[in-house]
Design a protein that fits this description.
The protein is an alpha+beta fold. It contains four helices and eight strands.
Length: about 130
Amino acid sequence: MTERPWPTELRVPPARNQVRVTYDDGQQIELGAEYLRVFTPSAERKGHGARQVIGGKAAVTIKEIAAVGRYAVRIVFDDGHATGIYPLHSLMDLAKGYSTNWSAYERELAVTGLSRDRPGTAPAPAGDAVGTPS
């Protein structure tokens, strides 16, 4: 079994529209604020029974990022969302699954009548959950 790379640095650039993660093996990834926001691991997305699709976050930015122990980061967004605690190992998983996750998200928006520009939530269509960090 190969050891998973571990984040050594997380940076939010001045535009506050992404998180750049550097790993101990030299890899770097960038995760957009909108992508992180709509794939939040909080109850807002996972739901209390039914997973939710979150719309209207195209212009969201990152207000703050803070360590949660040695295992996660809390990302606070400018829309007031502050309950997403992202396990550090999930950041690489989100980056690797970006294409699949984003395509599924866009389909979910279309099916639920939501949009990237107009805020709203709706129960996710039946099927497999996508991109939810564990």
